[in-house]
Amino acid sequence: MAFVAHSPAPTSEDDLQTRAGFPELSLKDFCETMRLDGTVSAARQRHALRVAMLGVNGEVSDLDDLVDEKAVDYREAIFCTASALLTEQMRGFDTTNDGHERAKEAEGTINDYRRRAREAIRRLLNRARVTVELI
Questions:
Q1: Is residue 64 a part of any domain in this protein?
Q2: Which of 1, 44, 108, 111 is 20 to 30 Å from the Cα of 92, by its Cα?
Q3: CB of 11 within 8 A of CB of 46?
Q4: Please, which residues have CB within 8 angstroms of residue 120's CB and are 6 or more apart in sequence?
C-alpha cells in the first residue's frame, strides 16, 4: 500500500493580483477548475500561476480592461498554461519503464493544455484560432 502526502487546501490568502482591470486569480479556483488533487504543493501551484500570468499578460499587453466574457478566457489561458507547466515538472520524477510510459502519455495532456491556452489567448485578442504555414 502506498502513502501519498497531500498538500493542505489553498486558502483565500493564496489569491494572486494581476494587472489593474483584470480579474484576480485564486489558487482554490485553480485547483477546482483544473482538478488538482493536492499532490502538487501550493508553493509550486502559486509559482506556476505567476509564470503563466506573466506570459499571458505579455501576450495580451494591448488590452486595457476585460469585460466578464473575456475574464473567462483570461483565466482559461492562465490556468491551462500553469497546468501544462506543472504537468511538465511532474513527469520527470519516475525513471522506471512505467514512468517513461506515463511521461509519454503526459505529453498529449501537456499539448492539450497548451492548445487550450493558445485558443483562449486568440479569443482575447479577437484573432482567428487557425495558424496556417506553407511548407
A1: yes
A2: 1
A3: no
A4: 73, 74, 76, 77, 80
pLDDT in tens, 62-79: 888 788 889 999 999 999
In a domain, 43, yes or no: yes
Distance CA 80, CA 66 (A): 19
What span, in angstroms and rounded, lies between the C-alpha atoms of 21 and 33?
Answer: 22
**Ramachandran region, residue 73 (left: φ > 0; alpha: ψ -120 to 50; beta: rest):** alpha
pTM exceeds 0.85 for this model: no
**Number of domains within the chain:** 1
Q: Is residue 65 part of a domain?
A: yes
Q: What is the pLDDT of residues 77-134, one digit of tens each?
A: 999 999 999 988 886 655 566 665 666 777 888 999 999 999 999 999 998 877 677 8
C-alpha grid cell, residue 48: 506556476
Q: Which three cell numbers stand for residue 76?
A: 482559461
Q: Quick check: is 49 in a domain?
A: yes
